[in-house]
Amino acid sequence: NLGAIVFFSTLGSVIGSLISYCVGFYGGEPLVKKWGKYVFLSHKHLEYTRGFFNKFGGKAVFISRFIPIVRHLISIPAGVARMNVYKFTLDTALGAALWNAFLACLGYYMGENWSLIRKYTEIIDVVVIALIIFAIWYTIKSRRIAGKL
What angle do CA 27, 31, 35 make, to 5 degrees? Predict the structure, then answer.
């Protein structure tokens, strides 16, 4: 039943995201204050994160549900930024429901060719991870050059 698949996969997505949100909400700031200097994070970064989520939080959470890797990580900074939990949950549920419905329909209609689809999504995952690593490296490098680290 596609409806049940979408419902329960979305429920799982929301529950998992809320757990990650709580990790950021309750642990984020204390961890950054204690250990942040070892990974180039400061109180200034916390303020930037809060500002970003105050301005773009809903859109960022919703859109991130369609991006491999990012969909699993966005909840932590949303919690750190103390994004409104109801808005976070709604945006997560909407984005995850659409993504899960897409995947369920794709699996249903492409079932026999799923190994081919999986092969290409794994390639996309590798590309996204590479882009994230590059962005982190570039940010650290440019900040060191600018003398901000």
Answer: 165
Q: What's this model's pTM, rounded to 2 decimal places?
A: 0.66
* Residues 6+ positions from 122 with CB-CB distance below 8 Å: none
**Model pLDDT for residues 47-58, shown as the tens digit of each residue:** 777 777 777 778
Give Dmax (Cα) for the chain. Answer: 57
| Site of tokens 């990790």 | 23
d(CA 50, CA 39): 19
CA atoms 80, 92, 129, 132: torsion sign = negative
Quick one: DSSP state of residue 113? G
**Cα angle 66, 67, 69; round to 5:** 130
